[in-house]
Amino acid sequence: MHLKERILYLSYQLASSRKYKEVKQRLNTILNDPSAPQKRYFDYFMIFLVLSTIMILILEIKNNLPAWVYYYEAFAVFIFAIEWLGRLWVASDAHMDIIHTQENAEFRKSNLTIWQLIKPALINKLKFIISPMSIVDLLAILPSYRALRFLRFLLLFRLFKVFRYTENINGLLRVFVEKRFEFFSLIILFAFMVFFASTVIYIFEGTGENPNIHNFYDAIYWAVVTITTVGFGDISPTTPQGRFVTIFLIIGGVTAISFMTSIITTAMAEKLELMKTNQVFYEISKLKSFIVICGYGKMGKVLADELRLAGEKVVVIDPLIHESVQAQKDGFYALQADASDIDLLKKMRLKERVKYFVALTNDDAINLSIILSVKTISEDILLFSRAVEKNARSKLLLAGAREVVFPYESAAIAAYEHLGQPVAFSAIDEILHEYIEPVIDEIEITPEMPAAGKDLRRIGIKKYRLKLLGVVRGRERNKFYFHPRKEDFTVTVEDILIVIGTTEDITAFKRHLHEEIR
Fold this sequence. Notes:
This protein has a six-stranded parallel sheet, sandwiched between helices. The protein has a four-stranded antiparallel sheet with strand order 7-10-8-9. By secondary structure, the chain is of the alpha/beta class. It folds into four domains: 163 residues, no CATH class; 93 residues, Helix Hairpins; 122 residues, 3-Layer(aba) Sandwich (Rossmann fold); 81 residues, Alpha-Beta Plaits (2-Layer Sandwich), CATH 3.30.70. 61% of the residues lie in helices and 10% in strands.
């Protein structure tokens, strides 16, 4: 088998290897995924290594350090090298580049040399190698030849590695990249004013009138010190023309610095908001399960408070900044974002951790968009929605909502019942809100429960002193059976039992159902 054939064979083997993909994806998550908890621990470890090796460099200037310190530094350099090789590996898929190159050549019916085959893969790897942070990593790996002072200075580049592991600092530094046009314009303005002022001052005072200006470099130095309003005082103008230029330079410098401060402040404020959002994502990533509420209006606030009292973790998503800020003040995880953004939903890893998703905005179109986006991520997430217009109910149910609530209609019906039967209504209301015993609760039958397939007499309702109000049959589009005959009704998967009893008895019954599973 020729070398080219071996390269192609290995590339196809890697492309079909699930283990290879899993290992590479896991490493990429640790190195590059800011939302992954593993990355944060890895970053802390690397920051410790960087700072400790810099401290060794500082201490050895005037001290003789024990041998174990240099062994530790060698270990740190080894870790830096492994990290760089790992980043080089995950930077691109060389085997896929080779496969695509070969398939394109076969389509064009051309025969490639080995160099032509591997060239695209090497170019992609080279792009990573010459990237700024990769160069910093390489300089940090350089052996510490302490006899050469120049190489010892290069070890300070390890300090720049800290920027790679601190997302917040990185975010702030990206301000200068994103605002490069504004900063470039300011630099041009500064350069023009410095050159103009230094030329004028050198013409009028560089011929002997000012003993401190000996050459054009002195004039430039004076202009830079003056325009930045530092004013050391070692060079001062002595002629009227020089003083006039100084006034012009100070006013221009203050104006330019004010403009620059405004740009930086605005950009920093935007980045700080983004950093807060990233922090919320990190906090959410540590939750095993949570409930998402979209829209923090009156209904959203009440629901969030009730869920918190029930011990649930709640994440609020609202596009309005004042609503999301209020949710944060109320103690909830809050994101100012569009809940229908699929990238946002993927980042939250809804499929694995979300128990329920509730759309409570006051716009049916937005609620519909949210439901469709969530269903794109996962068909299994339970969705509940609010409807403003009654004719929107069928659309929301068709989109995938399990239940649709009409708040105004529900409030009107409740008011009517309260007017007609105030005593009975108050009693039921207190039971529903668990102000008094007994309480009403719902119990869903899951596929793992042996209760599925049994009739109501044989699942222990009577044993635990509970009263069955009814059963919601999930497989019949949530049809409600009121107080069914126990001997005639067989429990099926997705049924929801509505029971009334004391909190202790209901808890014991739930435990009984789950103990049967084990």
